[in-house]
Structures are given as structure tokens and as C-alpha cells.
Amino acid sequence: VVEVVIQHGAADIAALVADEIEKLLAAKPDAVLGLATGSSPLAVYDELVRRHEAGRISFARARGFMLDEYVGLPDDHPERYRNVIEREIASRVDFAPGAVQGPDGNSDDLLGACEDYEAAIAAAGGVDLQILGIGTDGHIAFNEPGSSLASRTRIKTLTSQTRTDNARFFDGDVERVPRHCLTQGLATIMSARHLVLIATGTGKAEAVHQLTEGPVSAMWPATVMQHHPHATVLVDDAAASRL
Ligand code: GLP
Question: What GO molecular functions are on record for this protein (predicted)?
């Protein structure tokens, strides 16, 4: 069941998502949050920081799990997702040291790193609320078109579309965008108890149309969310323009 919420802009969407997270943490201070990178969740993170600074939200007992990570970026690379999450949210609120984890894209045993990551999420009791963005090709996390709907955390090759989309984070140079990543699988993401997907701008309109109105298909990986019991899709007017 996908609930679609249309808002006028990113700030309105951020306020609604922050409301959900504030409610969750009030009811369950040790909640497990699923954190996404990309530009879509940034306004949410800013709003969470504001509410934390206002004394409304504490993450002191919460945990965070990231969706995905590039393979092979230097540890201190600013676009390594672990560093992005640290910069955009983890270091700005009161998460305990080590409370936010991601798959280790620099492990010399990448298969083992994927298994360890699945085990860590399970040991934490699973994700209560998973924040998601969506790729223009309908990917969630780095589950590109053709991904198995039953997939778990694994190594994936990025499509040239996604590498082109993400070149803006690498000085506009697609050659600098890594070719491989580790990503939670679609089944991993589907295990979260509440999925909250944010999409803004006309570039996402087709993906949002497929996600909400298209047939469930590995060619538009986000359509798997139609089988989730509690999925919320928050879009602005532009991203809703094909609905
Ligand atoms: C990347 C990330 C995804 C994200 C997507 C959309 O490929 N791996 O998790 O949802 O981009 O990014 P943006 O929100 O910047 O449009």
C-alpha cells in the first residue's frame, strides 16, 4: 500500500517527515532509522537538526543504518557515503559514537561486508523508519533496474545513467564516479517497518508515476514498495506532475 502525499515544496515535505521521526523517537527513543544519501533527504536532516537544537528530538539512544556505499573511494573522500551521512546528519545531532553504520565499501572482503551488514541490521531489531530517495530510473538505494525484488545487501555495478546523475558530486566528471557499490537489497529495504520516500522536481516525475501507478517490475525497482504494508511517498507538485 503506497500512500501518496503531495506538497508544494521540499520544506513542507521535510516538516512532515520530521514530524514522523519526532513521533517515532518520542514513542521509542531507541528506534532504528534508515538513513539515505542524495539530495532528497537533505531538507529533512536540516529540519531534524533544528528540532534537536530546540530540544524536541534526541537521537542519543537511536541507531542509524545507511542504505548504500560506493566501493573503493578513499576513506576521507567527501563523497564517501559514510562521510556524507556524518556531515549531513550524524555529527549535527546527538547520535552516540558508532550508532550510525553503513556497509563497508572499502573492505577487502566485500561479500563478507555485505553479510555482516545484514546481520548488524537484524541484530538491531530491523529498521523502524526508512528514509528513501529515488533515482530518475526508479532505483532505490543502488538497486538499479533489473534488481531482484528478493535481493539482500550485495555488490552492484552502477548504471551509466546513475553515474551521469551523480557526476555532479564529483566535479561534474563521470569518470570520477565509482563503478561499483554495496547496497541494501530490495528485500532488505522492504523489511523496514515504515518506508518514507521523498521525490522532488520534474526529473523524478516518471519514476514517481511508475512507482505509484505502474506494474510491479524489476525494471522500476521502487515499484516493489507497492507490496509494503506501510509506505509513504512524499512528492512536490513537479514530481507529481505525471500522476
Ligand atoms: C543515489 C543514491 C540513492 C538516492 C538517489 C537519488 O543514487 N544511492 O539512495 O535516492 O541517488 O538522489 P537525489 O536524492 O540526489 O536525487
Answer: glucosamine-6-phosphate deaminase activity; identical protein binding
